Amino acid sequence: MTHDPHAAERQRYRAALAGLPAIPRIVFLLHSLDCLNYEQIAFRIGEDVGAVERHFATALKHLVREMDGPPQ
Fold first, then answer.
1. Which residues contact 63 (CB under 8 A, 6 or more apart)?
2. Which end of the chain is more exposed for a tag (fewer CB within 10 A), N or C?
3. How far apart are CA 34 and CA 13, in angstroms?
4. Considering the entire predicted model, what is its pTM?
5. 27-70 tens-digit pLDDT
6. How far apart, in Å, do the first and last CA atoms of the chain sit?
7. Is 1 helix (H, G, I), strand (E, B) or coil?
8. Do residues 12 and 67 lie in contact, with contact meaning Cβ atoms separated by under 8 Å?
9. DSSP secondary structure letters along 34-71
């Protein structure tokens, strides 16, 4: 069995994502994984672009805080 040096990091990332409220998590994933822009996301979730920007900022701040903190 091969040791995966990034397994713990991926687990922390998944846990950080799971700790997000639903809408910021959805916005982050639609933008980051599906490569949708804020206008496309706003249309999909029924909110204005400003709200999408705030949700993305919330998600990003949370993820940075969780990933930069000490390992758990």
1. 13, 16, 17, 20, 28
2. N
3. 18
4. 0.87
5. 999 999 999 999 999 999 999 999 999 999 999 999 999 999 76
6. 24
7. coil
8. yes
9. S---HHHHHHHHT--HHHHHHHHHHHHHHHHHHHHS--
